[in-house]
Amino acid sequence: MTTKANSIVKPLSAVSMPVSMDKTLFRFKRVGESFVQKVLPALIVGFLLILIWELLTSSQSATLPSPSRVVTDTWELIINPFYNNGGTDVGMGWQILASLERVAYGYSLAVIAGISLGVLVGQSTWAMRGLDPIFQILRTVPPLAWLPISLAAFQDSNPSAIFVIFITAIWPIIINTSVGVRNIPEDYRNVAKVLSLNGYEYFTKVMLPAAAPYIFTGLRIGIGLSWLAIVAAEMLIGGVGIGFFIWDAWNASMISDIVLALVYVGVVGFLLDKFIGFISNLVTRGTSN
Amino acid sequence: MSKHYLSIEGVNKVFGQGNKQSCVLKNVNLHIEKGEYISIIGHSGCGKSTVLNIVAGLLPATDGVVILDGKEVNSPGPDRSVVFQNHSLLPWLTVYENVALAVNKTFKKTKTAKERHEWILKSLEMVHMSHALDKRPAEISGGMKQRVGIARALAMEPKVLLLDEPFGALDALTRAHLQDEVMKIQAEINSTIIMITHDVDEAVLLSDRIVMMTNGPEATIGEILEIDLPKPRNRIEMADNPKYNRYRQAVLRFLYEKQRKVEVLVSAEKPKPAQASLKKAASA
Ligand SMILES: Nc1ncnc2c1ncn2[C@@H]1O[C@H](COP(=O)(O)OP(=O)(O)OP(=O)(O)O)[C@@H](O)[C@H]1O
Ligand SMILES: [Mg+2]
Questions:
Q1: Poorest-confidence range of A108-117, B36-45, B205-214, B263-272?
Q2: pLDDT at B151 exceeding the cut of 70
């Protein structure tokens, strides 16, 4: 313990740097430390996994490509994410964006409808008794099972995919919102009553902030499910989109393309989750008490 | 029509239905004049908060009426602001915003935005919280939160200020400090106050009258003690004041002799139930 402290102090005092230099050095050190603690383990494990993968698939008889094969096979795709040859022959960037666009539509609708219904169910005992059993049944239907029905209803693939996203994302949003609204402390309700807040004021000033942590839990689960569902739905409906890209690659036996697509899907899903988490932190900062 | 500022007339309160019914309050009558400081004291669970909530309009009375300034009370409103036991500040709003929510709502029509802003600052100044305008409740101490709660309630210029054990969760020093502040504020603006308390000293020091409630169920007002001590009162001088000590004794006698809480569950296990409950009550 003491020796360690000495070893940190000594070089600094010996050189007697200006204070600002001390500080930058210190900050640099802190950043370095958090890098070592948080990022480095993941990098090491990732590297090891790729190494194992490389070893397992290096023989001639392997059915799956090795990481190095994947990179050489898909190099054109990697360096040209935004080429456009018309039709479905577009870069990975466009494929991802097309999928994200569908998710954006379906998810936005689910957020609006989900929070509204969640508030209704959370506020009114009768709405809860009437709607909750129906929600509990419908939410167990797998996302893809909705696809044929929506294709029949919309007669078009794009709205059907959007509907599948919507119906997948909405349940966790409804359920978490309603739990959040039901759990608003009696005290806050009483404060609102004493101040005679009207419905709109109560909704914006008390209910939404009080339920925000719950709502964001729902939103975060919802975005994850949306991203899971879009890839599956796009495999079936075709067109531009990362899901159909995977299906297309499978039909053309381009396994390396599939691997690359999976990496993209994983990274984008991760970023979506982090994005909602970031907004959640921003909005609910200071509300925990 | 009653000639008192605030009248509680024949109020009964029954909770529950059917055979789970329990009659918590039975025939509560109380008349309060403008500018009076009333304390309600009684054992835990006797129905003090229920009385306060009925006056606030947060609970409906089963029978009887509450009349404030000639009008019957039947819903909550800004003319009867409440300071809740656990401050009840909205944690997502800053100190300033918490008070602003009340002020902007109450004086939307009668004050300009600038007047309201100044009024918010003045209210917070009154409880010495001007230094923490932009802090959130999580960032200030329990005593400070309670101050902001009081500022929020006072800022609404209520006809009656209702305090439900406002200092109950605070340490003795902070409590004394806040009691002094409330005394000062009341002397300044002569507000009408009903305060629930467990603390005998607090009741005698602050009140014009102490309302002592009998034990529930079917609790009602047992005695009303008029505190005839000149204001402003000083807690140190009061300690040697024979009159003050007689009032204290009167309240203690009511609570621990006439209305001694019979703790059935405790007495079944412990050999000395009377002492146990006395100790507990004294420390409360
Ligand atoms: N909503 C309710 N439903 C049923 N019973 C209730 C309800 N609210 C209060 N009671 C009962 O009424 C009685 C009085 O409660 P109240 O909260 O008024 O007591 P109190 O005197 O304020 O107690 P304390 O000093 O502990 O705060 C208690 O026995 C309680 O169980
Ligand atoms: Mg109470």
A1: B263-272
A2: yes
The SS3 assignment for A197 reads: coil
**Is there a contact between B56 and A209 if contact means CB atoms under 8 Å apart?**
no
**Pick from A162, A174, A163, A169: which is nearest to A114 by CA?**
A174
pLDDT digits (tens, 9 = 90+) for B199-258: 999 999 999 999 999 987 888 898 899 998 888 888 888 888 999 999 999 999 998 888
Asked if residue B214 has its Cβ within 6 Å of ligand 1, the reply is: no
Contact A215, A206 (CB under 8 A): no
A145 contacts A112 by C-beta, under 8 angstroms: no
Residue B158 Cβ < 6 Å to ligand 1: no
Contact residues on chain B for A206, CB-CB shorter than 8 A: 90
Q: Domain limits of chain B? A: 1-79+162-171+192-264
Q: Do B88 and A196 touch (CB under 8 A)?
A: no
Query: Which one-letter DSSP state was computed for residue B215?
Result: P
Q: Under a CB-based contact definition with an 8 Å cutoff, are residues B206 and B195 in contact?
A: yes
Please check whether the domain covering B1-79+162-171+192-264 is classified as CATH 3.40.640.10: no
For chain A, which residues make up each domain, given as ranges? Answer: 96-283
Looking at domain A96-283, its CATH class is mainly alpha
pLDDT per residue over A91-132, tens digit each?
899 999 999 999 999 999 999 999 999 999 999 999 999 999
* Ligand 1 atom, smallest distance to B85 CA: 27
Helices (H), A57-185: 67-73, 75-79, 92-123, 125-138, 146-154, 157-182
